[in-house]
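Exam revision sheet. Question 4 asks you to relate a sequence to its structure. Input first:
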Amino acid sequence: MKKIATIKDFTGLFLLTFSDLLVGIDFDFIRLDDLEMIATHHHDTLAELTHSSDFLVDLVLADSPQIQLQIITKLADLNQLEISKRKWLYVELRYLYDHIQDFNNPLVRIEALWADFDYNDRIKDLIYYMPAENIEQAKELGKRNIFNKWRVYLDREGEALSARNDPAY
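Answer key, structure tokens:
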């Protein structure tokens, strides 16, 4: 399923890392063709991570997007990939929640995200299945319950990830 959040949505919530770039590429939030532009735009933040601006020169001079990907992979902290996945999942769910009126069936999108992110336990309570006798009544109650759980997830996960984004962490 096509992702709806963008790098701008991501960087509006979190400081960008090379791990975030790598996961963003892997989960189709970022196109390889846009990597140079993103790295240029977020140069200062990324340069602090490497204590150098050399990465940008290497990206610009790279012969292909695949070589750019190799550069990003080399610079990414592989121990932070799970945190980066959590961030991207959060950003996508946050965007969906904040723009819910723009989607016909947001719960179907959540199910697709759950699958895309390897059935992440953190959002399993947002998955909507209907084993009920009175389908219409259960459907409405189930939706309200899921939307409440969705808001709780966003609050808790946003707080947890914001703490990790704090340079003092």
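Marking note for examiners. The first helix runs from residue 7 to 11.
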